[in-house]
Amino acid sequence: MQTDIKCAVHVLMTEAKALQMLADIVDEEFHKAVEAVHEMKNMQKGAGRLIIAGIGKSGHVARKIAATLASTGTPAYFVHPGEASHGDMGMITERDVVLMLSNSGENAELSDLIHYTRRYDITLIAMTGNSESTLARHADICLLMPNVGEVCPNGLAPTTSTTMMIAFGDALAVALLERMGLTPEQYKVFHPGGKLGQRLMTVAELMVSGDDLPIISGDVLMDEALLALTEKNLGMVLVFDAAQELLGIVTDGDLKRHMAPDLLQKPVLEVMTSDPRMISKDVLAVEALDAMTKVPGHYITSLIVTDGDADSGKVCGIIRLQDCLQAGIA
Prior knowledge:
alpha/beta; Rossmann fold; CBS-domain; 2 domains; 14 helices; elongated
């Protein structure tokens, strides 16, 4: 028994010492990280989200940090680096900030995500124990942890390092919470014990509508469709006829399927999807999420929204997968 107790005390004291060392070296980089996330949340042209990534034990910590931030009013979610390399990178936009966790900073699985942030000028925050690592060198902001060995007897199992990561994540969440002045009443909105909150949000509350919709006429060529798609940056364009009836949509996927030297000179009607999936603005947003992610054979990233029945109502907007994720609908 005494051996077990001695071991527990040693682990706790070692990790407590590591946290004290971490507290002693917190510097301007932490302020920069808080500032970057705070500005991301308050962008004038659409707020972004904090994307948190890590592999292995750092990945488990990243999930915890994302959950803590989301529950305290900062839109955040975890992206697995491996899944990001196989399509989930598309969930990350130029409005977002990426926080990447790796004690060594040299995990090969992180390379694609690092490259993506550099290519699209997405702010990258590193949380690492190695200031000379690939991750630290390419990051815009580096939250450096002290070089303290793992308390594991073999010095291998992530223990001390993950404790510091969790604490650093808590510090970030609380600093952001204090900036926004989150009240107990507001805090309850993000928890099942308070209000149903996001679970009862409707499609109408999340949809893109009005002047923000990319709309083109069915008698134009694909060069105009591409301009509209790029200008609105929603991943799709609505195609209407002269009577303002929906003819179809042109999506990023349609562009890929019809890629050819003469694509820009093709009529929109030859490229568009003429039977897009629709949903009523009055249904719950979680139903829209379900409709987008459980299509047999593939999943889609947006739905046409109507002001009545899904099949017969007038088009009034679109709802996207990322809108649901940003609002915490999952």
